[in-house]
Amino acid sequence: MNDLPDPGLAIAFQGEPGAYSHLACRQAYPGMAPLPCRTFEDAFAAVREGRARYAMIPIENSLAGRVADVHHLIPYAGLHIIAEHYERISHHLLAIPGARIDQIKSVKSHVHALGQCRGLVRELGLTAIVGADTAGAAAEVAARQDPTFAAIASELAAEINGLVSLRAGIEDAEHNTTRFVVLAREALEPNPNLPCVTTFVFRVRNVAAALYKALGGFATNGINMTRLESYMVGGGFVATQFYADVEGHPAANGLRQALEELDFFSHEVRILGIYPQHPFRVHQRLSPE
């Protein structure tokens, strides 16, 4: 237990050392010690139980869409979202030292990473093998020491596992970016006058126009809703839970009125976090299409 980081300086993430979540921890909080966890639930528990100060959790990717299970788990984690982080994902084809790219016959990685690098897999005629995560695939390449076996993972995974990058930037799209949220035990109270994001969940009954009525206040009050995810709850089909991100602070008149109208037409409205907008969000809004 002596090798565990100081809890006040630890930031938990799901995955093995070298995962993209690990890379996000290093980029966003370079002064903190990343704490790898086997599952998302383990990462939440590390923060809740005081073994880490924060948890860095991926929530959506510009190519692959939402990260499975996270939207179900965050509302019940007992934590608060206090920040967001955008990480540009640059995939590398990793192999053991001395291997040549023309030797590679098979490549292993997470299903999303393989899907984001279809062009390279097709170009080289590789057999794609789905693994649990990118960093784990890199560790397996290092363990097997087979020059025909490669992984798609981060440059950090290569560094940690003693591998070499045979080709960098192998993703099909240059805009491959993952959005993370940072969770903590205590809620953040950002300045209402600065650009903020408010994340919340709510439920509506499965009846005609329920969602339309619930969201009407956001339109009439000029609130920009940047994310809306739905999923069934309780194993039934009579109610749907929604996970939403909107730009603004609940203390501001527009969002306050929109949330009041939402509360009238829905139930179990619960704010999961109010936090500053990441500069990437502002840059995306201002960038020409």
From TrEMBL:
Pathway: Amino-acid biosynthesis; L-phenylalanine biosynthesis; phenylpyruvate from prephenate: step 1/1. Residues 199-274 form the ACT domain. Keywords: Amino-acid biosynthesis, Aromatic amino acid biosynthesis, Lyase, Phenylalanine biosynthesis. GO terms for molecular function: prephenate dehydratase activity. Pfam families: PDT. The keyword Ribosomal protein does not apply. Residues 10-185 form the Prephenate dehydratase domain. Its EC number is 4.2.1.51. This is prephenate dehydratase.
